[in-house]
Amino acid sequence: MLLLHELNILSNRQALAELPQGKVLINTINAHSYNVAQEDALFAEALLKGDVLTADGASIVHACRWLRTPSRPTERVAGWDVFEYEMAALERRAEAEKKRLIVFFMGSSPEVLRRIEERAGKDYPHLKIETYSPPYKQEFSAEDNEAIIHAINAANPDLLWIGMTAPKQEKWTYSHWPELKIHCHVGTIGAVFDFYAGTAKRAPLWWQQHSLEWLYRLLTEPRRMWRRYIIGNVKFVRNIVREKSMARNQRSTTPHNNQQIE
Predict the structure, then answer these.
(1) What are 27-53's pLDDT values in tens digits?
(2) What one-character-per-residue DSSP string does 115-174 give?
């Protein structure tokens, strides 16, 4: 079970500039992943124990405010926001250092990765793009994992993106974190691979600004998304109300010492 009260969520986009250098794991959380984590212990642990967590959904921002959680993000910081910031920051660094720094994309299909490499070569000319497309299967074998880890470590990237959809990407990265002998920021950004490659369309800016990106995806892909957004949103509200009730009950059973010391 995952509780928003236990999470340390990044406050806003500006806070991305304050992240430390070195090996840092960046995950995101939205209503869907919060729901899934209630019944997936490893996924919940991965979100709880990662280095950085951002609110990839206005629902998480509003829920934290309503629950009065210790960590209260002030705005949505989507996977796309993390991607844009990290890529631009590394491009500036590569230009300043006058050398090509390496960005490694692990996940998705060879075609998506080919499109990413083509677009990134134009958008970020000072960065060297390397990719790896893992086998398309629900669970990797030990040999699959060994090959993926070897490819990442051999590349020794300056930035690593993992894109295999949630919760697979978060669980895989968290489970194999000690085996990744790297020194860079690592982001689990799922759908961003397809958005950047152009194989999936992100909601127009107006929908994003009004916290309606979920509705846009529902309207454009109703058969695939209706369960996540119709049933899932009801489930999210129920889970948040349950967490609110748990917090209230905990406060009511906590003893208070009102005696004055003389």
Answers:
(1) 999 999 999 999 999 999 999 999 999
(2) HHHHHHHHH-TTEEEEEE----SSS--HHHHHHHHHHHHHH--SEEEEES-TTHHHHHHH
DSSP state of 65: H
Q: Which residues contact 117 (CB under 8 A, 6 or more apart)?
A: 105, 129, 131
Domain residue ranges of the chain, discontinuous segments joined by +? 4-138+147-217
pLDDT, one tens digit per residue, over 70-96 is 999 999 999 999 999 999 999 999 999
Inter-CA distances, 201 with 67, 182, 193, 204, 246, Å: 33, 32, 11, 9, 39
CA angle 89, 94, 100 (to 5 degrees): 130
